[in-house]
Write a structure and sequence with these properties.
Radius of gyration of chain B: 20 Å
Largest sheet of chain A: 7 strands, antiparallel
CATH architecture of the largest domain in chain B: 3-Layer(aba) Sandwich
Number of helices of chain B: 13
Distance between the termini of chain B: 23 Å
Structural class of chain A: alpha+beta
CATH topology of the largest domain in chain B: Rossmann fold
Shape of chain B: globular
Number of strands of chain B: 11
Oligomer: heterotetramer
Mean pLDDT of chain A: 74
Low-confidence stretches of chain A: 180-204, 480-485, 506-550, 552-559
Mean pLDDT of chain B: 86
Number of domains of chain A: 4
Largest interface: A-D, 59 and 58 residues
Order of helices and strands of chain B: HHEHEHEEEHEEEHEHHHHEHHEH
Low-confidence stretches of chain B: none
Strand order of the largest sheet of chain B: 2-5-8-1-9
CATH class of the largest domain in chain B: Alpha Beta
Helix content of chain B: 40-55%
CATH superfamily of the largest domain in chain B: P-loop containing nucleotide triphosphate hydrolases
Number of helices of chain A: 22
Number of strands of chain A: 21
Strand content of chain A: 5-15%
Chain lengths: ~625, ~325, ~325, ~625
């Protein structure tokens, strides 16, 4: 038999943990401490059956917290104090006795907190917590009903199972309704929090300026920049073109505001279709596999240098389709403004100048010169590194002649600068290189640390030739797998795939658009078959939650009588002294001492049994006597 | 503690177990427990292990009268209870008492008798009186039936119905004696003659006094009753068991435990008393499910017993 | 209301239930109802729950003679009814009465007897007389048969045919006593001896007077008859039931309800009287369909009863 | 005691009615018949406790219906057959015994039907049915739990109430979550059905062509065209300007595709702000109170003639704000192209020509001439009608000289044509006249039948003067109140207000926009206080549903004897005093009072039973005695 009261208490703790967990990391440190302390104290109080803190004190405490956080509410900072208020109120409630009313309050506060968490993070974990929360609430309410009607205050396990099973079916039956809601309702793509703080929210990655030597290191962040659904490609093809930087301003490469009119074309080659899901960011440049020839799905214009710029830079989760050709160069009909691409800033070091001159003399055609320069890079034994980058006055010079270690920016800028000095037009291309293929989702995952810079050199009669000087590094082949290894990688990829499906099928699901397509193609039935892979989430086990349940369910200690106390002492002593004797729940005391030649133990047992099995209570002096006997063992 | 006649009874057990019935101490003790708690005992073992010797020695040592019934398939109820015969010289019917009119009755191979005969015997055991042709004859006191039964399935036997197994307080086997002792026994030859001449160690009244002491003075704690009750409930709820230990079984178990406590020199019952009699008292009362009939009831009950926590405080 | 002898009978029930047969109040009451309405009772339960004790206590308290028949597969009809023996001195056959010639007869394990023996017994129960070799011997009055039966399917038993179940006005189980009481019983030990010495609380004539009162003075309303009839009709129409409660079952139910009303001190029957006897009187008369044989008849009848609206006005 | 089985059966019927009701009118006639028949038959079967139709037959029936409707599914006709299938399957289920499994099937089918109804009509009734449905489901499931665990098959009324109350709290506790969903989720503005059939969906009203005589009647439809939130105005000001028709093509007035460049202005006057919520329609013209000077909220351009045209005509529920000035004329700086506004088609009847000439001579200034023409209309005793409109070759001639009865189109076109013949530039204005003010919502409700046409005449030195010739009708004052009267009107207005709130706060609620405004104005706290008037909906009583409940719950009248009367009194008293005692049809009186320590009740039962179960009739004095005992309880 299980007491319903116990079940209710356990459930209410589950409910409050489920409510608070999604926002826990967003809380103030004080608030986190308060919550954890209250939770533990509440559990202890409930187990002892006493609630030491007075109701009035709690009320005052609530008011204090309320004002503390309420005063911090401002237009910039709205959600965070509100959630903190909710959690502190909840914490205070946890300290009280778990009466029906208090339980309801806890449930409602948890619900509000959970709802509030959607303002902070509207991801897959929210759905997970929501589903678990609703299940708990349903079971809780059914047991509450049983409890309130007082039909049974305790309940045997099979009945318990039956009741729980039926209670669980209640939220499940509303699943089709939820599905309908998800179907007919397009969602906001953003947690509100992001909205309110959008200035601070920016996915970095490739930058719109390249200035080698401006910092000692580069981003190692694993933040996702975009996901690109495509077929699997060779690693060497994974250049994601973002921006073209064609002008040197001092030592900084930037994109000139004036576009050169070039009549570009791309030769036919292997075509790759990608659907790209960028994480929300403010950059107007749309990365796509090198060379992207067409981007559709967002309003974007193509510059002649195959940079795609978004017309309206709204912070909205979008997706776009890109068609790319795996080409090495961009062809040019007619001429280009060579002067523009040859401009170098004053103050190029003499060593660079002489190197350029030397290589210029080695080759006859532009193409040959470029090749020679590459060979020079190889023989120079430059190595690729993200740390301890050159930071001197002339970092390029340092990189080429003394330090000989740098990141892609150094490779690309030095190569490009040398080319320009050699009279070969060149420009930098910023973007990403690499990508972890997610087999489950069939997409490439590109993270911030994959940001990369390479360059394009203009070769007469051919066009803009793509060159990645980083390849000339001695340790190029050793660039590590950037997504961890083994099981950890698998788990991360799985989690990412789930989040991807969530975004793809739920968040960015636009029924209206679908229906319009539907109408056009007149292909109604097929169009309505959506794949709700998110259903799989229900089977997802939420480990910390289960751990907690386990801890709570552990047996409690009981009040111990004098007899139990002395007996425990005795058995402990006996076990220490005679570990080989028979012990166990099925062994009587006489049996325990039978095989032991210890008069004190025997005496103890005789004496003790004579009291206990005559249904007498142990008197104090008897206890002392037994104690003494036990000590003599 | 002053437990009347305990020393004498212990002496009897001692003497029997060490001299006459070597290697049978357990059977002797259980027989004594049955006698002291006013029940009957069923020895279930193959022939030739000394069942008869046990019964003879017991009756000899206790100075009690001894009767023996060898059951056969044509044994009639009147062969047990006795019958009235018309005595011409007295011009009246005279009742000739059957072998059941003894303090200790050895019923050999009870399962060979016809059900009707078995039931006459069992009725006598239960009622402690015999009614023949309307006249009721009381049986002597103390009255102990030691029935033996061959456990092997044999042709022409009538197994005791479950309901009647309940009438025996204790069922036990004897088992082969330990190797050394058996060798000595083999070398020493039969001791039947010795037993015939063994001295009387106890008078009839001693038994009555001891019984009274057990019934009245041995304290049985609520904890022990709870302990027994939990065992009984386990047998009733166990899915292997069709019907468990009845209330009567419970009463018998308590009686036996008290007798055991008395023999151990305690005036209160401890869990070990229950443990040492539980299987002998309880196992034969279990009725197993059809599909589990092959199980050993002793082992089953023992495992149930092992699973119950001993009340220590 | 003046219901003769009611107080005395209640006193008997009171005494038995509180002192001798603790935890068996329901069985005691139903036995008394059976006795008062002139029927017989079938106790269906496993051995060792005190069926014999119940019968003994009842006969002892009522000052009635007691006979016991242990049924076995070789029990002959003459073992029950008695037989004639030629008495030479009287130069005539003398009839030796069998155990059935008692006021209260305990028939243990009736389903072990051969059908022929069963039917001899049942005939005696129905006719209240025994005819042996052309001479009819009336049975004493009151005459109550308490038959017991082990509900478990066992080898070598002859289950009572449905048609003969009908002869028992009441069938009931005893059931395990409540936990507390059972523990007390275990602790207290057997009370068989106490029962043997219990005082007689009623004389034979009291029963006869009470019976007459019940038959003549207890009023049974049309509404109650309608109520019972609806239950009976339900049993006949229910798809689970092959044959429902017969007319005799109806008569018995009315008799039992009247006896119950008498015990409750009313000279008219109320629906609760019917409710409290219906299952005991009716359940064993139901014959279920082949495919539903596993159903519990008591529960089935109880659920039917629950569905019938009580006549309140 | 109430049998749980009974409660479950009643609830399941409520559930299926709630599920089907919103789509009932959209069902096939056959399907409606099947549903109603099955419902009635099901109830009868349940009460008799026998289900006469064999399970196999039902299965076959289901399959037949399924194929019948499944074959009718096509890309154009998707939703309707699907719903019909659902309802027929449901109907078939209703005929079976209400076992747990069947009940669950009915509930799920009802749920799907209800969900499907959102495809047909996503209005306020859907929400209402949804809430009631969820409440019923919750109660149903809790009772189902009780039933399944077999704890009590019958239950007494106080327990019943407790259980029902707690069960009801389950959906209520999820309301905040629903609110959150509604907050963070903008919805599609359309039921899908409309989407799929949008070609046929168009709110008519004012037309973009006016051709008197083209039909014998005009729209009397009460379909809502738009709602305009504004202060209350005088009836005479309720001209809603829609479109200006400036060209006659034959007898038809149309809007010329070329806009005249006019330098218009509006004199200062009483300004009225309106927020207008049009029902979705395809018209690009945005009606607003005459004269609208500015419209914001949608991208719209203002033509010089104060016609506002929407730039993108998307079928989306929008709202816009309009600022209007209650002015009689549109001022003109400079000159207008008079020739354009004087063009009349050939073939104007001689009677019209002479009338125009006559009135031209009567006045000197343009303004005087217009006044004279108005006076002529009045003296002509023209009457306003919507029926039996002139349909001859020259309907204007017929209207003015013979029939003398017409609708606004006749009045306006004849007047305008006469003005043009008289040399005064004129043009028609199409829009709406009137509006029912909804005090509850504070808005004008404008329906299709309020479509109206008036005109503007150009008066030199002043500008475009507004004239409504319909005012010259003899029966002008009698134009009836168009929105019904009395209670009916009130109910309709209330219903409309609720729908209005629904649209305003729920459907067209765009949080994203709100938050952007919020960020701009930095007025966070105020901006987040949304008025959730939709909460009121919960209190809204859904009359047919309640009626049904009432019918089901109504006690049956029976002939009552003296015994029954006193018994009913007694049991009522007893239940009040001792709600926890055993009651129920299977409980006798003695059992009822057994557990109650109340001598009066016991005495009553003894006495009463002594009479009733002795087959006696209650005498008057006995009745009084019992009455007295009952009163003493």
């Amino acid at each position: 038999m299980v007491k319903i009261k116990t079940i209710l208490t356990i459930l209410i703790y589950c409910i409050c943990i489920l409510g608070v967990a999604p926002v826990f990391l967003y809380l103030d440190v004080i608030c986190r401490l308060i919550f954890v302390t209250s939770l533990i104290a509440g559990i202890i109080f409930d187990r002892k059956g006493r609630h030491y803190i007075h109701g009035l004190a709690l009320t005052i405490l609530s008011i204090v917290f309320f004002f503390y956080y309420a005063l911090r509410i401002s237009s910039d900072n709205l959600v965070s104090p509100a959630i903190n208020i909710l959690v502190t109120l909840l914490s205070v409630r946890l300290l009280t006795e778990k009466t029906g009313r208090n339980c309801m309050q806890i449930a409602v506060l948890s619900l509000f907190t959970l709802a509030g968490s959607s303002l902070v993070n509207l991801g897959i974990t929210f759905l997970l917590h929501l589903v678990l929360f609703l299940l708990c609430i349903a079971v809780f309410l059914v047991f509450q009903t049983f409890y309130a009607t007082g039909i049974n205050t305790a309940i045997c396990v099979p009945d318990l199972k039956k009741i729980a099973a039926t209670a669980l079916s209640m939220p499940l039956i509303s699943l089709p309704l939820m599905l309908v809601f998800f179907m007919i309702i397009p969602r906001t793509e953003y947690p509100l929090w992001n909205f309110l703080n959008s200035s601070g929210q920016k996915v970095t990655g490739f930058s719109e300026k390249v200035q080698p030597g401006s910092s000692t290191g580069v981003s190692e962040s694993k933040n996702v920049v975009f996901r690109a659904q495509s077929r699997r490609l060779a690693d060497k093809d994974l250049y994601w073109r973002g921006i073209v930087l064609d002008t040197m301003e001092g030592k900084t490469w930037v994109r000139s505001s004036v576009r050169e009119h070039e009549n570009t074309f791309v030769e036919k080659g292997s075509t790759v279709h990608q659907t790209i899901f960028p994480e929300p960011n403010t950059s107007p440049y749309l990365p796509a596999l090198n060379l992207p020839v067409n981007i559709s799905g967002v309003q974007a214009g193509r510059d002649p240098d195959y940079t795609f710029v978004r017309r309206q830079s709204r912070q909205k989760r979008v997706k776009y389709d890109s068609v790319s050709v795996l080409a090495d160069f961009i062809g040019i009909h007619g001429r280009i403004n060579k002067e523009h691409y040859l401009r170098t800033p004053a103050g190029t070091s003499r060593r660079i100048m002489s190197l350029a001159q030397k290589i210029s003399l080695e080759g006859t055609t532009d193409e040959e010169k470029v090749m020679r320069l590459g060979q020079d890079f190889v023989t120079r034994k430059l190595s690729y590194t993200n740390n301890d980058l050159p930071r001197s006055e002339d970092p390029i010079d340092e990189f080429l002649f003394s330090n000989k270690a740098g990141n892609c920016e150094f490779f690309a800028t030095s190569f490009a600068q040398l080319l320009r000095v050699m009279g070969i037009p060149s420009r930098l291309v910023g973007g990403y290189y690499g990508g972890t293929y997610n087999d489950m989702g069939g997409y490439y995952l590109v993270t911030e640390d994959m940001a990369h810079v390479w360059l394009e050199a203009y070769v007469d009669g051919k066009g803009w030739l793509m060159i990645d000087p980083s390849r000339f590094a001695t340790n190029y082949a050793q660039r590590e797998n950037r997504f961890g290894t083994g099981l950890f990688k698998d788990v991360r990829l799985m989690m990412d795939a789930l989040g991807y499906y969530w975004n793809q099928t739920v968040i960015s699901y636009d029924l209206e658009k679908q229906v319009q397509v539907l109408k056009k193609t007149n292909d109604a039935v097929r169009g309505l078959r959506f794949s709700f892979e998110s259903r799989k989430l229900i089977y997802f086990v939420f480990p910390p939650f289960l751990c907690l349940l386990f801890i709570i369910l552990r047996k409690k200690f009981r009040y111990t009588s004098l007899e139990e106390k002395i007996l425990r002492t005795f058995i402990k002593k006996l076990r220490q002294k005679y570990p080989d004797a028979r012990y166990g729940p099925d062994t009587g005391l006489h049996d325990m001492v039978k095989s032991i030649d210890d008069p004190a133990a025997r005496q103890f047992v005789e004496y003790y049994a004579g009291v206990v099995y005559r249904d007498r209570k142990l008197k104090r002096n008897e206890y002392d006597r037994l104690r003494e006997l036990a000590d003599r063992i | 503690m002053n437990l009347p006649k305990r020393d004498e009874i212990l002496h009897v057990i001692e003497t029997l177990a060490s001299r006459y019935l070597r290697g049978k101490i357990r059977a002797v003790k259980l027989s004594m427990i049955a006698l002291l708690s006013g029940g009957h005992i069923l020895l279930e073992d193959i022939p030739g292990l000394g069942k008869t010797t046990l019964a003879l020695a017991l009756s000899g040592a206790l100075g009690l009268s001894f009767g023996r019934i060898q059951c056969t398939s044509d044994l009639m109820p009147s062969d047990i209870t006795g019958l009235s015969i018309y005595k011409r010289e007295e011009a009246a019917f005279k009742f000739f008492k059957g072998p059941v009119f003894n303090n200790i009755v050895l019923v050999d191979e009870i399962n060979r008798a016809m059900p009707r005969t078995q039931s006459a015997l069992l009725e006598a055991m239960e009622e402690r009186k015999v009614t023949v042709e309307g006249i009721t004859h009381p049986l002597p006191d103390p009255f102990l039936v030691i029935a033996t039964q061959n456990p092997m399935e044999q042709v022409g036997t009538y197994p005791l119905p479950e309901s009647q197994m309940d009438r025996f307080i204790i069922r036990t086997g004897i088992g082969y004696p330990p190797e050394n002792i058996e060798k000595t026994i083999i070398r020493g030859g039969s001791i039947r003659d010795e037993i015939m001449q063994m001295p009387v160690l106890l008078v009839q009244n001693d038994i009555v006094v001891a019984r009274q002491c057990i019934r009245q003075d041995i304290y049985i704690s609520d904890k022990i009753v709870e302990y027994m009750y939990r065992l009984i409930r386990e047998t009733r709820n166990n899915p292997l068991i069709l019907s468990g230990i009845s209330t009567r079984g419970g009463i018998n178990m308590a009686d036996a435990a008290k007798a055991r406590a008395y023999l151990e020199g305690r005036d209160y019952v401890i869990p070990e008393d229950v443990q040492s009699v539980a299987v002998a008292v309880g196992a034969h009362r279990l009725v197993l499910n059809q599909e589990n009939e092959g199980l050993n009831k002793e082992e089953l009950l023992d495992s149930l017993l092992k699973n119950i926590e001993v009340p220590l405080a």
